[in-house]
Amino acid sequence: MEREAREARRAAEVHAREKAKAERVVSAKALRTATEKLAAQEATLAAHTAALAQHEKALRGVETYLVRTSKKTKRRGGGGGGLLPLLLIVGGGYLLARRPEVRQRVLDTVRGVNPEAADALHRAGRQVRNIVGEVWLERAGEETNPTRKTASYGATSTQGTTSQNAIREADRPTDEVKKDAGRAG
Questions:
Q1: pTM, entire model
Q2: Which of 120, 150, 161, 185 could cross-link to 165 by cystine, CB 3.0-4.6 Å?
């Protein structure tokens, strides 16, 4: 029995040594793998750092260019920076005035987001139209030629239409006039 106990102890010690050796081998293997991964990450980091330095240099160049351009623009007294927004506003206003389907699409889109804003936009559009109509009426009243033809339809003020009706007719889209002409003819 003693002999069996000794052999069991010895077997346990051998097993413990083999287990510790295996753990050291695994740990060494894991250490090598981790070291290789770390080296790869350091190489990637170095490449990214170099690229970042190049980008920062380019960014400093752009910043310098913008500062110089800004100073030149200030010295010249502007540079027409307000011209593009003004052209966009005027062009958009003209488009909305001449194309009712575009105007309606804009109102429908705004109404889908905020009905109150759509109503306010509609009221503002009517106010602008009334103001523009008054200006056109004043201009039409200043003209001395009563047989002036309107731009779109050839109706004269001596044919029974007032200046205001002529302006309204001139503002109607071509499709509506064609429909009316088809009904009358």
A1: 0.32
A2: 161
